[in-house]
Amino acid sequence: MAEIYSHSRLSSFESCPRKFQYRYVLRIPTETESIEAFAGKRVHEVLERLYKAAQLGRFPSLERVLRLFRELWTEHFDAEKVRIARRDMLETHPPEEQRPELYAAFYRQNGERCLTNYYRRFYPFDQDETLGLEQRVTFLLDANGRYRMQGVIDRVSRTRDGQIEIHDFKTGKWVPNQKEIDRDRQLALYQIGIAEKYGADQPIRLVWHYLLRDQIRTSTRTPEALAQLRSETMSLIDQIRVEDKYETRPSALCGWCEFASICPASGRQRAEAPSATAPPPQSQIPLL
């Protein structure tokens, strides 16, 4: 059976073939994650629980939502396993106040702001019908089964006029422009998978929620655009399959890489602070 790919796997190869090799070919285990990834997981967990509660007719207060977020943060946070690459957000503080716990608190506060913005915009969460939460999709790009894809969609909904929407929750502060949104590969790939369930003729809208900025971006794809995406993605997979050098590709993102301690390019990169303008790589919990 052909190996299965995902958007994150493809993006890893595009950003740095060596990182791809470490993660997907050599499968080197890592025990740490970036603070951005950690905070994003906690926000996603709370939003998932929030919508599950809403499906049951329960509408928790914003205070309860934020309390759950703080509980999850405390439960999962391990200072030894969460990497904080960017340290410029407290640069106005004196050195003695630039402690790790303050950096973590900065990201926790951002997470609370993300949830507050979303809650105030969408409460009581009845604008549409939730069809799926953290929904896994698997699909083929070709008829012969050689190009297999998978992904996890944050939320799938049906609007009151019958349109299907694929939602993605973003917790970083960077918001792309419309041209970049219209070129986004991830949600467009998910559309290919979702269309297999709801029908190729079903109107589908792609929706990005930039929670920290309280902004929403939307996009649609034509059948021609999706066909081109299929072709481009299969070509990229072909490139990955024949790769044997896995060269390093140093960039500002190296500061967030979990393999910095073993990468030959990390010596130069780790001596530099991650750029403030570079975007970072983006349990059983009771219902609210």
The shape, in one word, is globular
The rounded Rg comes to 20 Å
Residue share in helix: 40-55%
Low-confidence stretches: 268-278, 282-286
Largest sheet: 6 strands, mixed
Count of distinct strands: 8
Mean of residue pLDDT values: 89
Q: Give the count of helical stretches.
A: 9
Quaternary structure annotation? single chain
Distance between the termini: 41 Å
Topology:
Layout: E1 4-6, H1 7-15, H2 17-25, E2 33-34, H3 35-55, H4 62-76, E3 82-83, H5 100-122, E4 129-140, E5 148-158, E6 164-170, H6 178-182, H7 186-198, E7 204-210, E8 215-219, H8 223-242, H9 266-270
Parallel strand pairs: 1-5, 2-3, 6-7
Antiparallel strand pairs: 4-5, 5-6, 7-8
Helix pairs in contact: 1-2, 3-4, 3-5, 4-5
Notes on the protein architecture:
With 288 residues, this protein is α/β, with parallel strands linked by helices. 42% of the residues lie in helices and 17% in strands. It contains nine helices and eight strands. Strands 1, 4, 5, 6, 7 and 8 form a six-stranded mixed β-sheet that branches. It has a two-stranded parallel sheet with strand order 2-3. The radius of gyration is 20 Å and the shape is globular.
List keywords for this structure.
288 residues; alpha/beta; two-stranded parallel ribbon; 8 strands; 42% helix; globular; disordered C terminus
